[in-house]
Amino acid sequence: MTTDASTMLFHEYYNQWITIYKDGAIRKVTMAKYHLSAQWVQKLVPQLRVCEMTRVNYQKLLNDYAEYHERQTTMDFHHQLKAAILDAVDDGLIERDPTRKAIIKGKAPRAKKVKYLSQYELQQLLASLNLISGVNWDWLILLIAKTGLRFSEALALTPADFDFVHQTLSVSKTWDYKEGTGFLPTKNRSSVRKIQIDWQLVSQFAGLLKGLPIDKPIFVHDNKVYNSTVNEILARYCKAVNIPVISVHGLRHTHASLLLFAGVSIASVARRLGHSSMTTTQKTYLHIIQELENKDVDLVMRSMAGLCN
Domains in the chain: how many in total? Predict the structure, then answer.
């Protein structure tokens, strides 16, 4: 940063901070979110200078952003800006932390789309898949439904990742379907994992993978793969069997939901999904966890009521 950085326009400072501290250190998708935040900063406070970033000005910025976004999105925006602002405070460019006691507002959440299917609905979906021919997107739908893999993780699978003897599937990489650059590392360290697969899936994929190149992606035959293509196929199947339309990522939610309802621990579900912590799992599936807790309370009360005096 230059010596007169305190008089820089804040959006210029923020863009410079992103380049210095984030470029090359975070994933492309996360970097894109920072750049989007920077665009909003420039739009909402184009003339605000670093040294003018007071608590009042910062709160006004958050309030203006919140008029267009839901509360959680505003919270994410706040966290991204706060990191840069605290560095400016440490460097003496801003006297006091203007983010202290910030109030996070936001638009009312939109009605949420159905994210997962019931066990009966999933059974209907899987029964309708075309698994007679060779490798196609139906096999990918089956695999994600039964393993909870991320779309990019499933695309990166090769025959070598399957251990049919021990009924495991190794997840150690992802496929860059957005940029078309090939294999990439997993989302986080916890995403590198071995997943137990059921005997039926073992039998099905053992036959499917015979003769395929052991180190080549099963589902990718050129670098151009579109998430929308599989979502459209999945939507057609959902409509054909008259169940809620979900996305490919919704299959991952379905997998986790069924495990939780079956009584599998949050810790085990988190490991299977490759979450970085159980907190992520708890936040994502809070509604299911609360429903299960309500059932537990009913069970406890019935058990206590049945005790003799």
Answer: 2
